[in-house]
Amino acid sequence: MELSEGTEIKLLNGKVCTIDKELGRGGQGIVYLVDYCGGDYALKWYTKDYSNDFYNNLKNNTNAGAPSKAFLWPLAVTEKQFGSFGYIMPLRPRGYKEFGEFMLAKTHFSSMAANINAAICICDAFQKLHIRGLSYQDMNDGNFFINPRNGDVLICDNDNVAPDRTNLGIIGKAGYLAPEIVDRKSMPNRYSDYFSMAVILFILFYYNRPFEGKKFASCTCMTEELEKKLFGHEAVFIMDPTDDSNRPVEGLHTNVLRRWGLFPKSIESLFVQAFSKQAILFPEKRIIDREWMTKMIQLRSMLCHCPHCNEETFLEPDVNSQKCIDCENTIQKPMVLKVDQYRIPLFEGQRIYNIQLPIDGSLNAVVGEVVKNSVTGKLGIKNYSSFTWQAIDPIGTAHNVSPESGMPIKNEMKIKFKMGINGLIVK
Q1: Cα–Cα distance for residue pair 44/187, rounded to 1 Å
Q2: Calpha distance 271→287 (Å, rounded)
């Protein structure tokens, strides 16, 4: 049943919330603005029948707490009353836009850096979810809200989260689901999540769904049989290098045609692998969340401002000279810092992040930055961490680099950031 203004809803934690007004509704239920503990929150109230297993899973997830701050996670579950139940969650803050607005070009990222940061946030959130043995099961463009200014991500509809290979009634949306789920040959699990996450990341970068090319465009009426053909085990990636049967259509799929080639070849190759015939047919061949996370962090390191036009472009660490994606002038390869599994081009303004070393902290915590010496004009690295580094030059002379001090960039110079965390600068 629908709830009216002023209705008090009892929660399992012994507290109550009071209905203020309706915020929106969907296939599962209605979302209300409520007063809870003196503040404004959202209540999702189900208008469909759900099993006791669904209710108990919701309670378990609430008690466990959010795996990451990116999730608008259930804070409290209601008692069963008025013929149904629901849960309290935080309201979406101002400044966040629906994922679909980016694909429709109604909203734009403030920068490529913000775009990449959104990808990092998504990878980090799902990696933390999967570590708990959970899978999301219903990943689609309606579940993500992104701040276009900085790329911060919020993920909603977390009532669909359940233990691996357990499904509580939510199937998901074709075009985002893994082929084996579309074909009803498997229960949702982390491997189906890996596939769905790759779909979301592809849309985030190319503003087009990865299997909606000319085959999809030729369909006048979508049926269940056609859905299985287009998104099941016969799916064909629109940019498959060996199968051009589902290529983007000129004038219709403008975004992907314009943006394919914008990102480094290493990223294009990653998506080709993620949507290959092998990955479609064999879930265990898919790119896992940890690898996506590593590649997105590396991509952030390759983003720089062109020295000719000052626009954002990419510098691949192993390419001697490459062209700016905006002005097309040649940019010479800078020195590179090798640390852990990352290769970080050392151009002016480059940041070294804690997660590259890796050490604990937020996704955007900076431990060092490439700066230009105001006297000599040469580049060096400034220590913005809270600990002292040791720099060892090519002839073996060592000196300490305390917080807020700097060190020169020299070929074959070693950096001991912390015990067991070492870097090497190379040409």
Answers
A1: 25
A2: 9
DSSP per position, 103-116: HTTSS--S-HHHHH
Give the strands of the sheet with 366-372, arranged side by side.
351-353, 366-372, 379-383, 406-408
What's this model's pTM, rounded to 2 decimal places?
Answer: 0.94
pLDDT in the model for residue 381: 97
- Reduce the secondary structure of 21-59 to three states and give it as a string: EEEEECCCEEEEEEEECCEEEEEEEECCCCCHHHHHHHH
Domain ranges of the chain: 8-89, 97-292, 334-426
H helix and E strand count, the chain? 11, 25
Run of H or E including 322: strand 321-323
Contact present, 46 and 3 (Cβ < 8 Å)? no
Backbone angles phi, psi at 126, to 5 degrees: -75, -30
Contacts by 240-243 with C-beta closer than 8 Å and gap 24+?
A: 240/272, 240/275, 240/276, 241/272
Alpha helices in 142-276 (DSSP H): 179-182, 190-206, 214-217, 224-231, 254-259, 265-274
Which residue type is seen at 31? V
Specify whether the CB–CB gap between 82 and 68 falls below 8 A.
no
Give the right CATH number for 334-426 from 1.20.1250.20, 3.30.230.10, 2.60.120.10, 2.60.200.20. Answer: 2.60.200.20
What are the angstrom distances between the C-alpha of 357 and each of 70, 283, 343, 352?
23, 30, 11, 8
Which segment of 19-23, 25-29, 293-297 scores lowest on mean pLDDT? 25-29
Gap between the Cα atoms of 288 and 300, Å rounded: 19
CATH class belonging to 8-89: alpha beta
Instruction: For residue 333, give the 3-state DSSP assignment.
Output: coil
Of 386, 294, 274, 305, the residue nearest 343 (C-alpha): 294
Fold entry, domain 97-292 = Transferase(Phosphotransferase); domain 1 (1.10.510)
150-188 residue pLDDT tens:
999 999 999 989 998 888 877 788 899 999 999 999 989
CA dist 248 and 238 (Å) reads: 6
